[in-house]
Fold:
Amino acid sequence: MKRLNKKVALITGAAQGLGAVYAKAMANEGARVVLSDILDCQPIVESIIENGGDAISQVCDVTDNTALNNLVKRSESEYGPIEILVNNAALFTDLRRKGFEKIKEDEWDKVMLVNVRGTFQATKAVVPSMRRCGRGKIINISSGTILGGVSHFLHYVTSKGAIMAMTRSLSRELGDDNICVNTIAPGLTESEGLYNHPDYSDVREWNRSLRVFQRDMLPEDLIGALLFLACPDSDFITGQMINIDGGRLHY
Ligand SMILES: NC(=O)c1ccc[n+]([C@@H]2O[C@H](COP(=O)([O-])OP(=O)(O)OC[C@H]3O[C@@H](n4cnc5c(N)ncnc54)[C@H](O)[C@@H]3O)[C@@H](O)[C@H]2O)c1
Structure:
């Protein structure tokens, strides 16, 4: 039997990039996948259905409680209670690297709003559904940048540090509900948005040279850990982070 057979999985930020790859991988493992984003996820839904998978999508901003509650309502009415939440939506490829003194306060606030508060809001909207399900798996997407720090990206790295802190603390509140809360920290990964990003060529070679496995990191490199954290094999693991970076950082 497939590892996520008929489990309902909600993925935020799934219209493109890593979120779309996660949605396809979970559908391949038998999950009923709910894709959401501020962008249209329908092309990804269609490709999942063409491959024999189950998926629906709805436009939803993770900073909008009404939209989140409607999304949960629709997921439950079409598929039943949500068991898996991947908090992937973030401002990432929309941002440019710059020295910290050049970051304006409104840009700082926007990054915190989407990356930190959005993760909190999506979690708050979905946990009641997990309680109805009787179990749950929350997978928060942080970043390897929080481990060693990187320059010229202070708002983003700070927001992703908060995701790890949120994961640890929230895991302690949700144990009695049989809900695991874990984090994946990807290294620099060639998502489609990053591949076309003007800052990517500056950091690509440098990152590759620091890895034990000296090649580019691909979205598929994240899938094993994602499925592990989503399926019952990881039922006694919570509050943890899996760093996936081809051995770049040892901590
Ligand atoms: N690609 C990498 O190297 C890398 C490394 C570490 C962590 N990450 C993290 O992985 C995730 C995906 O990265 P990606 O490379 O695919 O980036 P991306 O920028 O292509 O994807 C982010 C997605 O989030 C969506 N989004 C933005 N604001 C939103 C909002 N308010 N509500 C709902 N959706 C919103 C965007 O539309 C987009 O589809 C992000 O959390 C990113 O921080 C990426």
In short: The CA atoms of residues 209 and 215 lie 8 Å apart. The chain has one domain: 8-244. Residues 8-244 form a domain with the Rossmann fold fold (CATH 3.40.50.720).
